[in-house]
Design goal:
- It is elongated and about 80 Å long.
- 54% of the residues lie in helices and 4% in strands.
- A hairpin with a 6-residue loop joins strand 1 and strand 2.
- It starts with 33 loop residues before the first helix and ends with a helix.
- The chain is built from 8 helices and 2 strands; from the N terminus they run H-H-H-H-H-H-H-E-E-H.
Length: 233
């Protein structure tokens, strides 16, 4: 017989579990036997670092179905960013790839954030999508959502490496805007404005490529950690 609460072996005649102190008399053995509480039922999903609370994911929360095409698109974006000043068709191709990447990224991030219920989060899963479209705040919210999701999905000893990847991604993305700043003068006016055009200079294109590759690493890392947490033993 096994303890209905923790699954530890429970010898006959014992009134309470030596491991957790629960009395088995309050549970029905037929319903809460070892087959229900054995390690094959819970696995690392129940005791994983993010404490997701269940061994199975509904399909709409599964990040594994999206991470491969998303990583492929991000790597393609990095390559195309380096060709922006070399090939005439590169800007159009990059724009098309970027739109496809953005759609997949929003879906993947919403699922990943929804799965990462453990840890501390500054923003709810809704902000994983809405945060990209809020003026000014979009310079912080997406990065914070990805960072909190990554830290909640991995073990404490690996959180530093996740933080480094996220900072590299977001810092390179912002740097691509600053290095791609162009001076815009209004016609028949003396006003001057500067607008960030990612990839408009070689420095900006390189930063954009680095950001895409760093984000691909972040996506792979979070997906692998969440797959490991939900995979049965």
């Amino acid at each position: 017989m096994h303890c209905p609460n923790c699954g530890a072996p429970f010898a006959a005649g014992m009134s309470h579990c030596r491991n957790c102190g629960v009395a088995p008399a309050q549970y029905a053995p037929a319903q809460y036997g070892p087959a229900h509480y054995g390690p094959a039922h819970y696995g690392p999903a129940h005791y994983g670092p993010a404490q997701y609370g269940g061994p199975a994911l509904p399909r709409w929360r599964d990040v594994s179905t999206l991470h491969v095409p998303l990583i492929v698109l991000l790597v393609a974006d990095a390559g195309m960013a380096l060709l922006l000043h070399v090939k005439w068709f590169a800007p159009l191709m990059f724009l098309m790839q970027f739109m496809a990447t953005a759609v997949l990224m929003l879906i993947w991030l919403f699922r990943a954030r929804h799965n990462a219920v453990g840890g501390k989060h500054q923003f709810s899963p809704l902000w994983s999508v809405a945060g990209w479209f809020v003026p000014l705040a979009c310079a912080y919210i997406p990065m914070r959502v990805v960072l909190d999701t990554g830290r909640a999905s991995t073990s404490p000893d690996r959180r530093t490496s996740v933080t480094v990847l996220v900072v590299l991604w977001w810092g390179s993305l912002l740097l691509s805007l600053f290095t791609g700043a162009r001076e815009i003068r209004a016609e028949r006016a003396e006003s001057v404005a500067f607008i960030g055009l990612p990839g408009s200079t070689w420095a900006s294109a390189v930063c954009l490529a680095v950001a895409a590759l760093a984000l691909a690493s972040v996506v792979r890392r979070i997906t692998v950690d969440q797959q490991r947490a939900f995979r049965p033993r």
